[in-house]
Design a protein that fits this description.
The protein is α+β, with helices and mostly antiparallel strands and about 500 residues long. It contains 19 helices and 14 strands. Strands 1-3-2-4-14-7 form a six-stranded mixed sheet. It has a four-stranded mixed sheet with strand order 9-12-8-13, with helices on both faces.
Length: about 500
Amino acid sequence: MNETKDVPSRAGTRPRGGRRRRDRTTLAALTLAVALSAAGCSGSSGDDSTGTSISYYVNADSVASSKEAAATCSKDSGGRYHIDVVTLPKSADNQRLQMARRLAGGDKSLDLLSLDVVWTAEFANAGWLRPVPDSIAQTIEQTTLAGPLATARWKTAVDPEARLYAIPAWTNTQLLWYRPDLMERYLGSATPPTTWDEILADTEKIRAAGGPSWIMVQGKQYEGLMVWFNSVLASAGGAVLDPANPTHQTLTDTPEHRAATIRALTVIKQVATAPGHDPSISNSDESSDRLGMESGKAAFELNWPFVYPSMRSNSAAGSVPFLPEMTRYASQLAEGGPDPSPAELAEMTAVVAKKFAFAPYPGVISAETARTTPGGTNIAVASTSTHPELAWTAAQCLTNAASQRTYAVDGGNPPTLSAVYDDPAFKEVYPMGDIIRDQLTAQHSSPRPASPQYQTISTLITAKLSPVGAWDPATKADDLATAVDNALRGEGLVP
């Protein structure tokens, strides 16, 4: 299949990888799902069939690296258990629906669940998840980055305080991707912008001088738009819900909060309506944004790290007009060939960096206030599991440093454990790793609102924001607040 044609996954868990070629790990997931079996098909981890069978329900995009980690954990268990990987549908909504139906029906065949980071509150509140044992939670809290850790917490009616209901397995965060060669040519400097105002100003200067004018963002009515809104809102000093009281919306409840929401919406409108903007911005997603950047229509792109191996591989294949010098690496990046050596990867990185570089996510008020929305997956133990102790043991193995290295290097999913970012194998694949780790700290990370009603909240917000920018920010702030209030009361649209 042509690697320049993507099948986008739910935003926040951006298109994920499955190939073991370390130079193209993330991009491979975009075609992996086509070859996977239908929902419910299962496959043993393969290396060890002795011991208690532990089922592990995994989203289709990540099944290859998950099976690899499961096989290792099964073998290392010494015969105590073997992990059977069950492939969930490619669609996040169908994944959620299938697991919810089974759990609601008391299905005892479920042990381990691969959960999108926005599902923790819903599944825990419904009584479908076992809380992480305190002895395990203490270690997880000490070693896991704050951003992904927050997505695994929830406080049910019987909990005295918020606690872990899952273990973060892998994560993600968006970066600013830019064309340093265009900036040098049209602006006289390749220093990347640090705020949305600077991106808009630099883009206008480039456009006025005859250069490309699109700013690639996710403006389609889907979860990607929610991620964009949440990141800009948090960077503006706002939030959708009160973290201390998630039954209370904070979009317009105070003058300060309303001002932050209007400020964020103003940024989104400015990007969507800027001179020479992407005419298809209200239909843009991660994949179309990647292609827009690779085709030379933009100097700036906000997207997940999967765009980097895509740019490298596709330019080597001759599909990127502004990187013809990469075609000399076509044989090293060809499918079926040997993995490039670290020295070869370093050489390619240096070539790509001259025309495609990365920087931290932009701020709204200043660079220091920039906050991004983490994506990723958490592993939970089903409340219906008949082997909870073994399931937690397996979950610990599936989320340890070795497994997270597999997910990152072979699967294209950044780790949640800070220590893995110092691993040489990880650094080969992720030259932007230090920025990713920094953006997943408490200072720069802002998870989407934790709520059992999140699906409804997200659906209503993205519906109100679409078509993106075709509204007045002040009026839209009130519309969004009303929609969230309705969702919290159980009214309005049900996904």
